[in-house]
Amino acid sequence: MIAILTRQVASLFVTLLVVSLLIFTVMDLLPGDPAAIMLGTSATPETLAALRTQMGLDQPLPVRYLAWLAGVFQGDLGQSYTYGVPVAGLMAERLWVTLPLALMAVTLSIAIAVPLGVQAAYRHNGPFDLLAGAISYVSIAVPAFWVGLLLIILFSTTLGWMPAGGFPGWDAGLLAGFQALLLPAVALALPQAGVLTRVSRAAVLEVMNEDFVRTARAKGLGERGAVWRHALPNALIPVVTMIGLQFTFLIAGAVLVENVFNLPGLGRLAYQSLAQRDIIVMQDVVLFFSALVIVMNFVVDLAYLVLDPRLRVPA
Amino acid sequence: MNARIFRRPVLLIGAVITLALLAVALMSLIWTPLPPSQMNIVQRLKPPLDAGLLGTDQFGRDIASMLMVGAWNSLSISFAAVAIGAFAGTVVGTTAAMWRGLFELCVMRLCDIVFAVPPILSAMVLGAFIGAGRFTVVIAIGVFMVPVFARLTLAAARQIWARDYVTAAVGIGRSKSKITLFHILPNIANQIIVQVAIQLGLAILTEAGLSFLGLGLSPPAPSWGRMLADSQTFFGQAPWLAILPGLAIALAVLGLNMLGDGLRDMLDPRNNT
């Protein structure tokens, strides 16, 4: 167990390091000199050179990479060229939109998908199963940002029940904040829910024929109790895996959905910083998202060990 | 075969949707109701059936024609991207299964790393690098597909390498590359085909997302994603502008996903009893 854990943590760090190096190198190759962008067209060569020295841009790539990495470890992500503020603060501020949004979306998708999947497995090959299957097929196929557009047309433009976009900030009250995030979260959750429904249906169906579920039935627990109390907990591994694997798509969805709803989140920040060639912000946001995906996969691997004791035996 | 396909509704529906879409896309190369970029300001923002079959946009362009050409753009980009991913991924994956050792380990790690950067972000960066356009989108999506196919073919090929007939081929002195070509590849082809259909759906979704952000094809080439982006200004007046391109995307992805699932069920020998 300890050996597995040590190896996984070590490989986690190696992966993170290589990803950071990759991101830094690619960003460095991007056309456009940040110093020149900051100063505009009227800059003299002397001021440009001075600023480049001040920003450390005249240093060789490995030096700059190590300086950036050292900063990242100390929580100093550099200074945004366009906003003129520390990137760490900027990202923290945006994270307070993206994180609640992602959590709401994941919670919503689980709340929709697991009961639907379990019911579909419980009544498999019946009309309910067929309907659940059709719904999940369709919801996987719709792009999250399109669902967002449709929700705006229905609930904002037509019915006027919800704000069409924007974020009032958490200072405006929890309720206002949640209300602003509700439609985007639904848009993000729907495609995820489709995938999760199918996975939980398949997982429960597979476990339902196992001996221990038959034992549960035999001792008189009833079909419902056998499914929810015994089959579902054992079917959780594929479901948890899928939630982890879908994380990349959740982030991609967030970038798009935040743009649809004009939410000042990390995804929109990534998009804006790219448009403004604010390379340091882009670099930090991409690193953050990638690290999140890597850590998420790591957590999924750990969750395996917790959920399935059989995997604790070294291969 | 003919009788069997009718007993598989998922495969049938998926194949019909995909073929219909492919037909529309190909047809747009020789005929559309109107030239897709022909503007007609007098006829702007007309609802479906009022002007043309599916109405007009803010410049009076015919939506049906734009959707048709959009189908070609979307499908051709996705096919190219998946072709790159499937080819490169299969070469890498089967080679790793053939050589094993350090190469295999490096391939697995590299896959993890490429997987870690969400494709939409790498496409945004790549777009900044070489400018938005068809080539950028194909490469950005294609690169993300490589690890998908590399992992799949590596796992599948390793299973085949353990079979007796491969051991026999090794025993009679066949070279590793010949074994890969004549024994491994034909036996994992089914799994690759199924994955191609599923990844095509994913590629269409990603392409639409990139065009939506303005990182796809440059105007005036019609693209479903950008049509959706443009529709945002006209929600109140012309909701169909936001509904129709989305329906096209959803239908295309639905068709390909069903085709992939149907093919998997049909090609999986365990289901043929």
UniProtKB/TrEMBL annotation, chain A:
TM annotation in the entry: 12-30, 95-118, 130-155, 167-190, 235-257, 285-307
Coiled coil stretches, renumbered: none
Superkingdom, natural source: Bacteria
GO molecular function annotation: dipeptide transmembrane transporter activity
Keyword Membrane belongs to the record: yes
Topology in membrane: Multi-pass membrane protein
Subcellular location: Cell membrane
Principal location: membrane
Protein keywords: Cell membrane, Membrane, Transmembrane, Transmembrane helix, Transport
GO cellular component: plasma membrane
ABC transmembrane type-1 domain sequence ranges: 95-304
Keyword Cell membrane found: yes
Family, similarity comment: Belongs to the binding-protein-dependent transport system permease family.
Full protein name: Peptide ABC transporter
Organism of origin: Pseudorhizobium pelagicum
UniProtKB/TrEMBL annotation, chain B:
Record GO biological process: transmembrane transport
Gene3D superfamilies on file: MetI-like
GO CC terms: plasma membrane
Boundaries of every ABC transmembrane type-1 domain copy: 71-260
Keyword list, A-Z: Cell membrane, Membrane, Transmembrane, Transmembrane helix, Transport
Subcellular location: Cell membrane
Location, primary (coarse class): membrane
Record-linked InterPro entries: BP-dependent_transpt_permease, MetI-like, MetI-like_sf
One Pfam entry name: BPD_transp_1
Membrane-crossing segments per the record: 12-31, 75-98, 110-129, 135-154, 192-218, 238-260
PROSITE patterns linked to this entry: ABC_TM1 (PS50928)
Membrane topology type: Multi-pass membrane protein
Protein family according to the UniProt entry: Belongs to the binding-protein-dependent transport system permease family.
The protein, known as: Peptide ABC transporter permease
